[in-house]
Design goal:
The protein is mostly beta strands and about 80 residues long. The protein has one domain: Beta Barrel (Elongation Factor Tu (Ef-tu), domain 3), CATH 2.40.30. It is about 0% helix and about 60% strand. The strands form two sheets. It has an eight-stranded antiparallel sheet, with no helix packed on it. It has a two-stranded antiparallel ribbon with strand order 3-8.
C-alpha cells in the first residue's frame, strides 16, 4: 500500500482524544491514516474532523484540523494517507 505524507501532529488533547494535525495535503472523512513516529505506529480511518470547533467533511493544505484518534499521539508525529 502506498502512503502519502498529509501532515504533522502539533498538539494532543487527552480528554477528548483529539490530535491537532497541520495539513500539507487535502484530507477527507473516510480516509485511512497511518500515524508514525514519536512512539506512535497505528492506522485508523478518519471518522470525525473539525476546523475551529466546527465539523468538516474535507480540509485542505495549510489548515490545522482536530481529528479524533484511537491512541495517544505526540507533537512531531507524521501523518500519512494510506491508499490501495
Amino acid at each position: 500500500m502506498a502512503e502519502t505524507l498529509v501532515g504533522t501532529v502539533t498538539h494532543y488533547f487527552g480528554k477528548p482524544q483529539v490530535g491537532i494535525v497541520s495539513l500539507t495535503a487535502k484530507l477527507s472523512i473516510g480516509d485511512t491514516l497511518h500515524f508514525r513516529g514519536h512512539g506512535a505506529d497505528f492506522q485508523q480511518t478518519v471518522a470525525s474532523m473539525q476546523v475551529e470547533h466546527a465539523p468538516v467533511e474535507t480540509a485542505s493544505s495549510g489548515t490545522e484540523v482536530g481529528i479524533l484518534v484511537d491512541q495517544r499521539v505526540k507533537p512531531g508525529t507524521e501523518v500519512y494517507r494510506v491508499s490501495a
